[in-house]
Each structure stands twice: as structure tokens, then as C-alpha cells.
Amino acid sequence: MDSFLQEVATFKKSWPNVEHIDLVFTDINATPRGKRIPIESLEKLSKGVALPLSTISLDTKGNVVETAGLGEDLGEPDHLCFPITNTLIPTSNPSVGQILLTMTDDNISTPHPLLARTIVENMLDELKERGQYPVIAMELEFYLIDKKRGPNGELQTAVNPSKNIRETETEVYHLDGLDDYAEFLQELNSLAVIQKLNTSGALSESAPGQFEINFNHSENVLKACDDIIFAKRLIRQIANKHGFDATFMAKPFHDQAGSGQHVHISLLNANGRNLFSNLDGSSSELFYQTISAMLAQARGTMALLCPNVNSYRRFIPGAYVPTTANWGENHRGVALRVPISDAKNRRIEHRIAGADVNPYLLVATVLGGVLSSPNYLASQCPPSLNEPAQHLPTRMPEALTALDSSELPEQFSRDFIDLYLACKRSELADFERVVTPLEIDWMLHSA
Question: Which PROSITE patterns match (predicted)?
């Protein structure tokens, strides 16, 4: 832990006004959990900090899902958590810093296998053994919304801070919209630089108050996932400071565009050559094998990419959201898009997940396709925009059933799948027990 102590010393020197540190641990939903400690105690993290194992299996409300088997059945055991290297950074609060933790297994020497981050780490190790090095770039969409709810408790789009009106019209890539929210975006971008998040700018998206943050291509795949955790936290903090709420719900408004999280992936060898391209610049067999694997696994991984009931409300016709396991070149209506690119930057854009996805599970799903590619032939890849293509599950119960019976790469252990299914089935059951206002409006006198 000498490197960690050096990291602490450098941080304290760079940020002398920081008084507290947030210890950030992500559960199965990638929701930040943890505790706040005085900075004087930071060095003690080298010996680990104890958190309950059941923290992995918290639902979206922050409750332990007992059917997952990590709580009372085991006696609520603690496991030691240790800091992740190079994640000690400031927050939007000048007096508070933050650091990511990972939980260890019983023997303390290895990350816990039920952590989504560990799955990604193990996949990267296996790819490295093959001489393959993925490069990824993320795109994250979100809404700024009004803190005040509507008369019936519904969400409301943000009041434009420059025009002082609540916008309702869609203006794709509206540059003036960026100027209207300039103060928010300027503070967000400047703090993202301070936090060393690998962002490349923001643009106005398809709906009022909707934005997309793009991240640069990176060979540091784990950091790219970590950056999403920090970026979401930062966006929420800055939004609150400017009088907004920020939401990463996949579909916060029924009549506006949903929010997605896309990931671009290419694959390099040890010399930096793109393995998705042949030496003559054409697409390689590995490229088509990878597409074949991703398409074959798409149905089974849908529940990992779309973790909530609300996630599936994005999947409506004509919304540039895929409903079948298909692919296409320079086409935004497909599950796997091949952007305009040359031999050097040939890549696949995975477009299924919503903004509410756990970024580690999103990347693990994509890497799972790469790992499985040797099991497929290039000739198995269907033609671009192939019809009919396999339909994706567009309801949560169907997606959970598909995940339960799917054959995913071995890095998704059966223990992890069972844990995930237990958590999500519990959440679905809680949701389905609620009587909604719409049911009452429709059926009070007509049933």
C-alpha cells in the first residue's frame, strides 16, 4: 500500500482545504454507497474498512434484498474494502474529497467475485492473455429537470435559466440550448477536468433539458467505468447547485426521448494495431465474429443492460432505440452500429443500454461478446440490417427469464446471475404490488 500512501500525500498537498473524504462503494445498481471520514483517517484505509457483504445486494431504494442470500442468512458478515488506485479525487464541495472502494473476498487478497467491477477486471485479464486490448468510449445522456413536481406529482422539464420558460419542443443538437445552460455546463466541464474525468464535451440532445456527455476513447477500461460513477455524482451535485434535479432514468417523460448510455469498442494488439481491421484496411474476421457473438448474447443480456422497470419504456418504434438484435453501418436504429471509420479506428457502438445501466455490467456485456467471438464464424454474422432479426425482450419479466436461461461467458458466474436475478425480481415484485393513479383513473368506475 506504499503507492496508496504516496497518493494520499500528493492529494493532501494538492487539496489542503479538504477536511473529509467520501468512501464510495457501488452496489449491484452502481449506486454510490459508503461513509464519510475525516481526512486525518485517510491513511488508515491501507488496512481496509469493513462494510457488510449485503451492501452488494441493495435494491434501488437502498434496502437489503434478503432473497439474495447475503444478509441475515449469513449473519450480515463484514468484508474488508480497500481503496482503488488513482481514484482519490476532489468533489464539487471544496472541503470534501472522494475515493472508490472495492470489496475483497474471504481471503482478503482478491476482489470479491460478486462485484460487477471484478467481472470486468477478470475479463480484461483474460483478453490480455490473448494479446487483445480493448479501447472503449462512453456516451451518457441525462436530463436536467425541475425540482418541483407537477400538479399530479409528475416530473416536469426544467425551466430554461436564460429564457425563464419551461420548454416543451424538441430541438436536436440545439447549440443555443447549450448557451442557455452555459453556467451549469461550464462548472460541470471545469470540475470534470479537475477530477481528471476523460470527458470530451457536452451537447444538447433530443429533448428540452436533455444533454449528452461524451468520453474520449481509452485503453484504461476500468477507469472509463469508474469515470461514469464519478460523472453521475458530479452532474447531480452541480445540477442541485444550479437549482435543478438531474436524472439518469431511461425514460423520465413518456412524450420525450429516452436517455441511453452507449459504448464504442475497438480491439488492439500489443503493437496498437486495430484487430477489427485487416492489413489491407477491410473488416477482419474477428470483427464479424464479435458482432455475431454480441447479437447472439443480446437477448440474454437485456436484463443486465436494462435493470429497471422504467428501462423498458425506451423501447418504442421510431425512437432510435433497438428492438431487435441487428446491426448496421452508419445507422442509429440498430443494436450494434458501425460508425463511419477507417481501418485504424474501426469500432462497434453498442446502443441497447439506457442511462440507468450499471457501467461495469454494460462493459462486461460488451467484453463478453469479444471473449466469446472465437465460438462464432465470420460467416455466421447476418447481413447488415438483416430482417427478420431476433426480437429483444421489451418487458422486465421477459428479460429476467431470458437472463435466467441464457448461456453467457463463464466470467458471469451462476452465483452472480442468481444474485442479480434475486435483486431484480424483488424490485419487480415491489413495483407490481403498487396500485397506480392511472389504474384508478381508468378502472375506478369502469371495471
Answer: GLNA_ATP, GS_CATALYTIC
